[in-house]
Each structure stands twice: as structure tokens, then as C-alpha cells.
């Protein structure tokens, strides 16, 4: 059993007043995320309907479901790409209504995407520094004249970038062009760039896509390491069930835009509604 799986299996999930469950260690902390009756319509079609979810302050949670279930739409609602037509999103108890994407980021939400979105022509370190832009600043005057304040900030950004790249052992790639990296390394770089914004909630959209079994196993370990090192919550969308069941403490299942099940990995694997959503109804044997 890997360290991540052992940690997940040792986690006790307990109920909270919102009729959800969070890890026992988070029960006295304000949830990092609460959605209440969240929904959105496109041309009269309900893409997400009555979506309710609570995530503990340091929980690793999973959002799963068949293709087209509405998972990425939920991520777009949480990050303010879309404005919901109903319901509420709370980040650390703060209502996100009316906020922009930038404001949502400042509240502590960061994400990766199904399709990698790096600056291919820039170096690995430069991509990480983009995530640091709100943390290290100097005025235009200092930048133009290269005053001491400029060099101090440059040094701090470099050190922080290398520290973050160390999570995935990517320091030696700092000067490489991002677009030249293998697919799995680009996936990891996107996660590092998201971490550079110092999120409270990290959203990972199919982080294992395109990875081989060895890379997926490493990713599982690193997700747990990221949570422990940064003390943040992580919500991931993933079709690789070995990853989901191995690292996620609480799991929410979507089908046709509605939640059909919530629970621990063991509960979800045994849930008839989940089995039916993924496999379809079993045909009764002919007499």
C-alpha cells in the first residue's frame, strides 16, 4: 500500500451540520468550500442542478461522473468563468456572487485544465513566475532603472520558483522551454504554476490524463504531499479510478448535472446508483 493510500484509509470522515462529511481533523474548521443549491442553465438546459458540496479545510476530494456529467462546468462555476443561475458558492465562508475570475483567484482558488494551458515559448521558471505576479511587486521606476528593490524581488521570485519546482523534482528544467517538455512534465508544471498563487483550494481537472501508470502513482503521492506541505484542500476531477480511490477522502458523483452520491471511497464503490451510472443497468438474465 502506498503512503497516499495508507493516509486516505486512516482518515475518518464525520458529518457536519450541512449534511455533508469532512475529515475529522477539519470538523472544527470553517470549510474551504460550500456550494448550496448551485445550478446553471444554458438555453433552458440545466447543465448543473442543485449541486451541494462541502470540502474541509485540508481535504482531498474527488468529483467524478461519466463524460458530460457536468464536472468541468462545476469547476467553471467555482472559478467564476460562469456565473450561476441559482445557488451560492462560499469560499472560507465568503459569498463569491458577482466576483470576477481575478477576484476568485485572490480569494484562494487556483485550477489546472483538461487541456494544458502553459506559455509554450516561455521557460519553465517563467511559467511559474506568472503565478507569483500578485506576491512579488516592484514599481515601474525600480524596474526601468534596475534599482536594488528590483533585484531583491527578482531574487525572491527565483528562489520561490525553484522551491515550488522542487515539489516535482523539476529544478533542472527551469531554463527549458515549457513547450518542449514531455506531456507528463507539462501536467506537473501546470500544477506548480497553480500552487504559485498560494491557493486555499486547488482544483485539478483530470491531472492524470495522458500519464502512464508509474507517473499516475507518483502523482498520487505528490497530491498528498502538496496537501500536507501547504495545508490546503484539493478537489480533483479524474477518470482514473485507481487515483481517485487511492487518494480522495470524500467523493462526489455527478450524473446529468445532479449529485447522485457522496461518501468515502468505499461507500462510493459499493453504491448501486454509481455502478449504474458508469456501467448501465444490468440486463436481467433471460428465463
Quick synopsis:
With 287 residues, the protein is α/β, with parallel strands linked by helices. Helices cover 37% and strands 23% of the residues. It has a domain at 3-108 and 199-279: Rossmann fold (3-Layer(aba) Sandwich).
Polypeptide structure, described:
Helix 4 (124-131) packs parallel to helix 7 (183-195). The chain has a six-stranded mixed sheet with strand order 8-9-10-5-11-12, sandwiched between helices. The chain has a four-stranded antiparallel sheet with strand order 4-3-6-7, covered by helices on one side. Strands 1-2 form a two-stranded antiparallel ribbon. The protein has 287 residues and is of the alpha/beta class. It has helices at residues 3-10, 71-78, 101-106, 124-131, 140-145, 148-165, 183-195, 213-230, 241-247, 265-269, 272-279; strands at residues 13-15, 21-23, 33-42, 45-55, 60-64, 86-91, 94-95, 109-111, 201-205, 233-237, 250-255, 258-263. The chain is globular and about 60 Å long. Helices cover 37% and strands 23% of the residues. The chain has a domain at 3-108 and 199-279: P-loop containing nucleotide triphosphate hydrolases (Rossmann fold, 3-Layer(aba) Sandwich), CATH 3.40.50.
Amino acid at each position: 500500500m502506498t503512503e497516499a493510500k495508507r493516509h486516505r484509509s486512516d482518515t475518518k470522515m464525520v458529518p457536519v451540520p450541512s449534511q455533508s462529511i469532512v475529515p475529522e481533523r477539519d470538523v472544527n474548521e470553517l470549510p474551504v468550500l460550500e456550494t448550496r443549491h448551485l445550478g446553471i442553465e444554458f438555453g433552458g438546459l440545466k447543465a448543473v442542478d442543485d449541486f451541494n458540496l462541502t470540502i474541509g479545510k485540508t481535504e482531498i476530494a474527488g468529483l467524478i461522473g461519466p463524460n458530460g456529467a457536468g464536472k468541468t462546468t462545476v469547476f467553471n462555476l467555482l472559478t467564476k468563468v460562469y456565473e450561476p443561475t441559482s445557488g451560492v458558492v462560499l469560499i472560507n465562508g465568503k459569498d463569491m456572487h458577482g466576483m470576477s475570475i481575478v477576484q476568485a483567484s485572490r480569494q484562494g482558488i487556483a485550477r489546472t485544465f483538461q487541456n494544458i494551458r502553459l506559455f509554450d515559448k516561455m521557460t519553465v521558471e517563467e511559467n511559474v513566475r506568472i503565478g507569483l505576479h500578485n506576491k512579488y511587486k516592484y514599481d515601474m521606476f525600480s524596474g526601468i532603472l534596475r534599482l536594488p528593490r528590483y533585484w531583491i524581488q527578482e531574487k525572491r521570485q527565483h528562489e520561490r520558483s525553484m522551491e515550488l519546482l522542487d515539489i516535482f523534482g523539476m529544478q533542472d528544467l527551469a531554463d527549458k522551454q515549457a513547450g518542449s517538455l514531455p506531456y507528463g512534465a507539462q501536467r506537473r508544471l501546470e500544477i506548480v504554476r497553480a500552487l504559485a498563487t498560494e491557493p486555499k483550494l486547488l482544483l485539478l481537472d483530470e491531472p492524470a490524463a495522458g500519464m502512464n501508470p508509474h507517473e499516475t502513482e507518483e502523482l498520487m503521492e505528490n497530491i498528498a504531499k502538496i496537501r500536507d506541505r501547504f495545508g490546503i484542500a484539493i478537489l480533483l476531477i479524474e477518470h482514473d479510478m485507481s487515483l481517485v480511490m487511492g487518494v480522495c477522502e470524500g467523493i462526489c458523483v455527478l450524473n446529468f448535472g445532479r449529485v447522485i452520491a457522496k461518501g468515502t471511497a468505499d461507500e462510493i464503490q459499493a453504491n448501486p446508483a454509481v455502478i449504474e451510472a458508469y456501467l448501465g443497468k444490468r440486463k436481467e438474465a433471460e428465463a
